[in-house]
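Q: A reviewer asked whether we had any structural model of the full assembly, not just the individual parts. We don't, so I'm hoping you can provide one. Inputs are below.
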Amino acid sequence: MLNNAIALLNAWFPPTEVHAHCDGPCGVYDPSAARITAEAVLSMTKKIVALEEPSDAAGKVAYANTLSRYIAIKEEQAQKTKDDLLILWTDYFKPVHLEAYPDLHDTFWKAAKLCSACKVEVSQQHAEELMAAVEKIHGIFWATKGRQVAWFTAS
Amino acid sequence: MGYGNGNDCPPENRAISSASWGEYAQWLVGRRRRFVVREDSMVPTLRSGDTVLAAMGARVQLGDIAIATHPLHPNMLLIKRVQDIFDDGSVYLISDNTHGPNVRDSRHFGVLTASGIIGRVTSRLATAT
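A: Here is a predicted structure for the entire assembly that you could use as a starting point for your response.
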């Protein structure tokens, strides 16, 4: 009976929808995903560089654990950035875009290379270059849609 | 993200309890909000069409099911499992059905800021018919 009452209630007053989100071939592209993950790469790189190794045994264990986690996050987010950029490059951009942006392939190729470099190395310079590359792609992407979307970062 | 804390929620701990009379009371006095689940990334815990109650503004802990604002689509609300909470309060959300096709969560859109978490699921009100 209670279930029936709730079913009636849901019919009369529909609840707010929450999505256990799945993504179909919806044609929705957004370089924001690459921006977020590239920011994570830069953040993790800075944290790795700033991490100081303590001298005591307990501190060393905590240090090793933290460093390992930072590295794992950096590497995953770098790979994710690469994946997101490759999806944009191969799925969104079309030959007509290449005519308007002749350096499109070079831009993506270098950006993907930077993802690999950031994954393998601990280089703040390369992480910042990756952010710059994603910003450039952001500009091109929204220009192809005829929209002005300001570049911003979360941190 | 979400590595190595040992906080991956084992399947036996994922079950969500049915609404108790206390939960109904909380709902009646406005301390719970009703949501209907869409899509299947939280299967088997929640299926599309299930209705849940959530405490809005409540803090979430590891393993909780959170109601959150999608970081890339602000008008879309998400329902996901909290897998990790970082020192700065940001939250890593994961699906229960991680191997489903086209499932999307923090593995794809990254961590959410604490302000992106708007509620904690407290019970299941009704299952999909």
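A: Points you may want to mention in the reply: The interface with chain A takes residues 1, 3-4, 33-43, 46, 48, 51-52, 67, 70-72, 76-80, 95, 97, 100-105, 107-111, 113, 125-126, 129 of chain B (CB under 8 Å). The longest helix of chain B spans residues 21-28.
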